[in-house]
Each structure stands twice: as structure tokens, then as C-alpha cells.
Amino acid sequence: MENNKICVFCGSSEGNDLAIIEAAKQLGNTFAAQNISLVYGAAKIGIMGLVAKAVLEANGEVIGVIPEFLKKKEVVHLGLTELITTENMHERKLKMQEISDGFIALPGGIGTLEELFEILTWLQLGLHTKPIGLLNVNGFYDDLLQLLENMVRKGFLSMENYELLLVDTNIDALLAKMAEFRAPQIPRWLNEERA
């Protein structure tokens, strides 16, 4: 992966953990320093806004993708390098996947989980071959990772698919894992003709 453009999924709230707020700023600074363009949901609020602000203040590139109905509210960041408007949420996720070289999930809420698991499902199905990282700041995702491990134990998730999600607590280490990522072959059952 060339790491030219990385899409970041994260909260539209800042939450109450200062370590997460600091990690968001650090991620933005790292992107700018490494010439990685940020692709994100175009909001000026929450963790989303903090990452974008950090990239922009360090003279990095930020591409926001937002559906029209959210653009009308007081959430859109108007100082981005590029703002792409879509008709709806689904089109927004398709556009983000299309223009990004990889994905990182920071802490967030239901929307963040939904975006993370959809892009992970698309990778599992062979719809893209891009790396997906989970930045586990201050143990935020420990319970989620335990749940995924339980899915493996109970036979609902293969170890191969579990390992598609690259996890680290350190930004540079996570980016290194993403750079080394090679997507597995598309499962044979997806290639077989169905009668």
C-alpha cells in the first residue's frame, strides 16, 4: 500500500478520554508529516474535526465526503482541501472506499462501528484489497476484540478473517502493518458458479 490516502472512521463526538483526543491530533500530525492525505466524513466536530484540524494546521491535505442532508446542518467543515457531496450515506461510503488506499478506525460510536464493519465485510468478500487498521487507544476496543475472538471460538468467524483487521495501540506501528498488508485470495466459494 502506498499510503497516499487513508480514510479515517471516528466519532462525531469528542468523548471524555483525553488520551483519545490526543491520539486524534497525533494521527493528523503523522499524516501531514508522512504526506498521507486524510479522507473522512467532512465534519468540523468531534474526533473527526480534531483529526482534520491537525492535518490542515500542519499543511496536509484533507478530503471530506458528506451526504447532502448532513451538509445542511452546522457540522460540515468548510476549510477542507476538497469537499465531495454525495446523495446519501451509502454513496458516501462507496466514494470513501473508492478514493482511499486504506482505512483506520479511531474510537467512536455506532456510526464508526458500522463503517468499520462494512469496509471489513467488503474486504472479506474480495470487493477491495485495502488494509484496515484499528487504533486501539487506551484499551477502547479491548471488549470489541474479545467479542471477535469469541466469534472465532464459536465458529462464526474464521481466524483468517479475524486477522484481516490490523490492530495496534501505536500509530507508526499500525501504519507499518498497513504498509505490509497483502489481501488474501478471494474465497473459492465466491468464485464458483452457482446452479
From TrEMBL:
<comment type="similarity">
    <text>Belongs to the LOG family.</text>
</comment>
<dbReference type="GO" id="GO:0008714">
    <property type="term" value="F:AMP nucleosidase activity"/>
</dbReference>
<dbReference type="InterPro" id="IPR031100">
    <property type="entry name" value="LOG_fam"/>
</dbReference>
<dbReference type="GO" id="GO:0009691">
    <property type="term" value="P:cytokinin biosynthetic process"/>
</dbReference>
<dbReference type="Pfam" id="PF03641">
    <property type="entry name" value="Lysine_decarbox"/>
</dbReference>
<protein>
    <recommendedName>
        <fullName>Cytokinin riboside 5'-monophosphate phosphoribohydrolase</fullName>
        <ecNumber>3.2.2.n1</ecNumber>
    </recommendedName>
</protein>
<dbReference type="GO" id="GO:0005829">
    <property type="term" value="C:cytosol"/>
</dbReference>
<dbReference type="InterPro" id="IPR005269">
    <property type="entry name" value="LOG"/>
</dbReference>
<keyword id="KW-0203">Cytokinin biosynthesis</keyword>
<keyword id="KW-0378">Hydrolase</keyword>
